[in-house]
Specification:
Length: 232
């Protein structure tokens, strides 16, 4: 192979490597901007039609204001939350709920939706704050799960008959962890991990390519540096 051929191969390799490096830099930025812009546009499309034209600044301007609908939605939700904490607000909410509870189909949807949001968004809730491993689908094969809560109610009464506490876990698929299986496993069969739920989601979405740093290993390394073994 001549020197000219080697130089052409080397040049092509450098161009490919530079392109891949640029792609790694630009792709996450572009995807983040696109997702953010899509969410803002989606929120605006839902909220703006309900804003009276006299209160909408776009009625007086010659251009659209991205994010105005989202700002109005966030402000309105925050204001409702503030009003819902006082006596009058709680009375209005209780009266509205009493009306919804009288509607056969609506009350089921409302109760289920409210329970989900209270469980997920409640500050004191421990839902999905831990990540663990269970043997699934066969012994020796481990799957990543998100710990929901301890088994309660009838499920706890039926499954805890042998004295083994059961834990509710959510097994999400890869690479889109938006649907999955709710499973009840013995606490002794659950291996809790130190990684956060956010790191667990990254691990799932990347199909294992993005592995979070093991903090315990770093702690052990730091302890070794501080207290080196004898003879070093």
């Amino acid at each position: 192979m001549t020197n000219g051929s080697l130089e052409r191969i080397s040049l092509a390799t450098r161009i490919r490597n530079n392109f891949l490096t640029g792609l790694i830099i630009c792709a996450p930025i572009a995807i983040t901007i696109w997702l953010t812009w899509s969410f803002i546009d989606w929120a605006d499309s839902w909220v703006k039609p309900y804003i009276p034209s006299r209160y909408n600044p776009e009625s007086y301007l010659q251009f659209a204001i991205p994010g105005f609908g989202l700002l109005i939605a966030v402000t309105t939700i925050t204001l409702i939350g503030f009003l819902g904490k006082n006596l009058i607000g709680r009375s209005i909410v209780a009266y509205s709920e009493s009306i919804l509870h009288r509607m056969p189909l609506v009350r089921t949807v409302y109760k289920s939706t409210k329970q989900i949001f209270e469980t997920v968004l409640k500050e004191q809730s421990g839902s999905f704050k831990r990540v663990g491993l269970i043997e699934f689908p066969s012994p020796g094969t481990w799957a990543l799960v998100f710990v929901s809560s301890d088994a309660r109610g009838e499920i706890a009464a039926k499954l805890n008959e042998d004295g083994e506490e059961m834990v509710a876990v959510f097994l999400a698929p890869t690479p889109v962890p938006t649907a999955g299986f709710l499973m009840f496993v013995p606490r002794s069969k659950l291996k809790l991990l130190d990684m956060s739920p956010e790191e667990g989601v990254k691990l799932l979405i990347s199909a294992g390519l993005v592995t979070p740093e093991y903090k315990a290993a770093a702690t052990e390394e730091a302890a070794t540096i501080i207290n080196p073994p004898e003879g070093t």
